[in-house]
Design brief:
1% of the residues are buried. This protein has 6 helices and no strands. It is mainly α.
Length: 210
């Protein structure tokens, strides 16, 4: 029996040798790891921690309770503290300017609100005064209203008719100067007739002789 010869192995990629090691083909450089980057803030924190290590509890308490002392100590320990504070102040400057503008606008707004409130109170007071004046005006004009005038005309006509009737009865019972009686009676009846005609026109809506 003849032996079976296995097929030959495929060739390796150009970047590898037969023993599995990398070839001399160049590869892209490995990017730096995050921990290799320099952090100024971390340096400042380390400097502050180193400066606080030798402090006693009483000294640490004084640093915390005394206003501005901890910040001054940090600036004295860290080489970038002053630069950091300057950058912080510059970053806060637009906010401070905006705060000043807001306070100025708020002051103006408060003045406008106070002025508007005073004007509203004055307007309400003037409105109440006008309402009282209007009531007095309508009360004064009430006797001159069309219903009142019509009622007054009817009352005067009735009164004139009663006077002329009483004059006629008195003349018939007691007598007197006929000429004087006729003149007075005619004037009275004329007034009564005129009142009746005007009352009729008023009732028909033809006031003023229309």
């Amino acid at each position: 029996m003849s032996s079976v010869i296995p097929p030959p192995l495929p060739p390796l990629p150009p970047s590898h040798s037969r023993n599995g090691s990398l070839s001399s083909t160049p590869h892209p450089p490995t990017p730096p790891q995050p921990h290799a980057l320099h952090s100024p803030t971390a340096d400042a924190d380390r400097a502050l921690i180193e400066g606080l290590k030798g402090k006693s509890v009483a000294e640490l308490k004084e640093l915390l309770e005394t206003e501005g002392l901890l910040e001054a100590f940090w600036e004295s320990q860290s080489p970038i503290a002053k630069e950091y504070r300057q950058l912080e102040r510059e970053a806060w400057k637009p906010n401070e300017e905006l705060a000043d503008r807001i306070m100025s606008i708020r002051t103006t707004l408060d003045l406008c609100r106070t002025d508007t409130d005073a004007k509203l109170r004055d307007s309400a007071s003037l409105y109440r005064t006008w309402r009282q004046t209007e009531e007095h005006m309508y009360s004064a004009l009430s006797p001159l209203s069309p219903p009142s005038l019509q009622q007054h005309l009817n009352a005067c006509t009735t009164s004139a008719s009663e006077v002329s009737d009483a004059l006629a009865e008195s003349f018939l019972e007691e007598g007197g100067d006929l000429g004087a009686f006729l003149r007075t009676y005619r004037e009275g009846r004329k007034t009564v007739r005129l009142g009746e005609v005007q009352g009729q026109r008023w009732a028909e809506g033809r006031v003023g002789g229309l």
